[in-house]
Amino acid sequence: MTKFQKILTGILAAQILLVVLVFITSQPAGATNNPLLGDFEPTSVSRIIIEDNNSNQITLEKIGTEWVLPNAGNYPATSTTINDVLEKLASVRDTRPVTQTSSSHQRLEVSENSYQRKINLLANGKEIIVYLGSSPAPGGVHIRAGSSDTAYLTNALTTSQFPATASNWIETTYWQIATEKIQSIKITNPNGSYNFALDTNGVWNSGQLGDDEQLDDTKWASLLSAFATVRMVEPVGTENNAAYGLDSATASLEIDYLDDTGAAKNATLFIGSQDESAVNYYAQSSLSAYIVKLSQSTVEKILNFNKDSYTANPTPTVTP
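Above: the chain's sequence. Below: its structure in token form.
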């Protein structure tokens, strides 16, 4: 080999080495099999704040061994659900790195300003931030710990398991009375006052029915089911506020019923004002210390109740 050929060979080798080095340094961090959050212990978490990309935010806090919504008068949250998702976070491994450069965070939706979910944990007094991003394929989601630039792909969890709305973290049933235990119902709203009662034969009757009117069994069965079980949108708290409109309720639903021992009981649901969204309504039950928000569709069954709501449509008279 001539001296010139040796020089060319050396230059080629240097170029190859340079290409290899550039390739290696441009790749994501090498995959290992360690927990993404290190020695994170789910039981050490005392507070969770979840934000989504629609400006929703929910705060969950642990009191003793139980989880609550501190911004809603410590309304009880479903602790088993919360403990389960914390376990899922702890199970995420760093086996599938995607990038280690912050310039890619926006694209993967795991940046400080662009994310599907931002999860802020307080564990043993230490703040831990986790970003959940886009899903490039079913069963996979990008994830990044806020303390690192490296983002990973994981199938250990999904963004839907970390909603930022209260209804996903609580039991939404606010009022539930067994329909077979109900003895009488009274609805009061701007249209008037309507009373219904079971007779000795177990048949529902209304004092408002005229001689040519009758209770529509299908309509009434649907209403009875709706009145017996009321689900909330979210709890508000235990402190009343003039803006809630509960001091002079817009409408009310009163039910007399028998408990499991056969004792006579009474419960009233008061409907207040619409909330700031003009979609939901404030409400409170005599069975609960908590004021809640009810959906428009739930409230309108009470607020707009009138004779047409429960009477059968008259049969047209055919003139011979």
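Residues 173-309 form one domain.
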